Amino acid sequence: MRDTTGTLNRFDRQLWKKFWKLAKPYWFSEQKWKARRLLLNLVVLTVLVNGINVGISFIFRNIDTSLARFPNTGDSSTFWRLIALYAGLLVIATPIVVLFDFVREKLGLHWREWLTNRFLERYLYNRAYYQINLDAKIDNPDQRIADDVRAFSRTSLSFLLVILSSVITLISFTGVLLSISVALSMTLIAYAIVGTVITAWLGRRLIGINFNQLKREADFRYGLVHVRDNAEAIAFYQGEVAELAQLRKRFGDALRNFDLLIRWERNLGFFTSSYNFLVRALPYLVVAPIYFAGQTDFGAITQAAIAFDQIFRALSLVISQFEVLTAFAAGVNRLGSFAEAVEPTALAQRKSTTITTTKDEQLALDRVTLLTPNYQRTLVNNLSLKLNLGEGLAIVGHSGSGKSSLLRAIAGLWNTGLGHIARPVLGEMLFLPQRPYMVLGSLRDQLLYPHRDCSSDEAQLNRVLEQVNLAELPERVGGFDVELDWANTLSLGEQQRLAFARLLLAQPRYAILDEATSALDLDNEQHLYQQLQEMKIAFISVGHRMSLLQYHHYVLKLEGNTHWQLLLAQTYDAA
Ligand SMILES: Nc1ncnc2c1ncn2[C@@H]1O[C@H](COP(=O)(O)OP(=O)(O)OP(=O)(O)O)[C@@H](O)[C@H]1O
């Protein structure tokens, strides 16, 4: 899998490029002015917060000095004045700090909203969601859209602000520190550089481990969702033990990787903790001799310690944030490869060397050779046929001979192979897949799908339900607007009839039916096909039942060895 190659384990140009490709569009989008305005507010607030910090360091320097002088001067008023000043500063500082947090969250929210919408659009554009499933290169797209995007916008923003405030801190406190001791400033810089290099070296494996952690957590969650989605089948099979083993395995994988993660974090912790402890003594070691020599006042030691601490934090950004940084890098890698996969150009490229399709009034296949998406098996070789309006085609053949696959090719879902397909626009064709698809929503949503916004009065909906022998359904479920778990509430045959009702309501020119009546009794099947014929909807059906043949003009028989025969339905029936 592309995602687990070695390149993702490093902080390198590649990672930076991926990050920038993900981050840039928002700041140059139609929302750019709002985004930039919020960012500007944040920058101003960051400067203010830092200004307040510098002010506080000066107040405490003077407080310390006034306390140190008290035995000689007996003057306590300076101390109280400074305390009052500090209290005054707090009154101003509190709303600024609160506002800073608020604006940061607000911008994070806006960024997430924009980025999630962009990903959702691209995911559902050009059937990227289907292609991604087929390629199996991108695991758990749901997690990438839901969790990784959220983490990306939030963490990018907090890093940006941390870096910004570190730069401001550096500028403001370096002056303070330099005024106290040049030697201390130099010591600090050298210390931070050495620390950062060692941290990056010690923690180099953390990105890869974090990457795997995200994947394994998502796999575990998917396992749980799978049990929920297939609860009935599992209950019938009494497959609890097998499911439990499967879930435990997934959870175990996530735990083992997490164990590895905390081991590496521990190793890193040995270094970063001692690094942080040692640094506390440094300012005293350097400034105390200057104080002993009478070259500076006592308060300078405190202020040096504060300034030193602030600059140290700014310079040690990579060290203090290293674990967060590696998790972030892993998220950028996952999101980056997802963005590449759903990019419209990537989807278009995939299509250029394959079965081509054009728009036409009638359906026609011209020398179509169809392969499975992994190019491992040829299903049909050199197939040509033309279907005029009003003619029905039945596709028959052994299980696995490629019947459904041919429908997928007509729908443009699969295009691995050669040849050309001419067909009406997809809006004029309606496909009923093998497994009836029940949408999340009300009975009305079921019937109108995929055109949720089109208006249909209840009389019309009732009429269609009558046509598919489901007239009593609205009353049974409590009306057209009640939301139910339809896939688990209706029988398979009822679901198939409901899908048929959808078809009759949409009135497409072509209906493509993949064993769409397999769960129905013969009477119901006959009734539904009669409706199609009355409405002059042309149809292609896949099925194993001989009873189907009577509704079709032609039969396409797939032999299973890439060969095929096109026969008149009567000829096939007689044979
Ligand atoms: N995503 C896929 N990747 C690779 N091979 C696939 C994929 N989907 C299906 N196949 C293979 O393609 C072949 C044809 O499958 P298809 O679903 O078209 O068969 P079918 O004739 O409709 O079978 P049935 O009557 O059992 O529904 C099968 O061997 C199947 O295993």
UniProtKB/TrEMBL annotation:
It comes from the Bacteria. Residues 42-327 form the ABC transmembrane type-1 domain. Gene3D superfamilies: ABC transporter type 1, transmembrane domain (1.20.1560.10), P-loop containing nucleotide triphosphate hydrolases (3.40.50.300). SMART domains: AAA. The keyword GTP-binding does not apply. It is a multi-pass membrane protein. The chain crosses the membrane at residues 38-60, 80-103, 159-182, 188-207. InterPro entries: AAA+_ATPase (IPR003593), ABC1_TM_dom (IPR011527), ABC1_TM_sf (IPR036640), ABC_transporter-like_ATP-bd (IPR003439), ABC_transporter-like_CS (IPR017871), ABC_transporter_sub-D (IPR050835), P-loop_NTPase (IPR027417). Residues 363-569 form the ABC transporter domain. It is found in: Cell membrane. This is ABC transporter ATP-binding protein. It comes from Aliterella atlantica CENA595. GO terms for cellular component: plasma membrane.
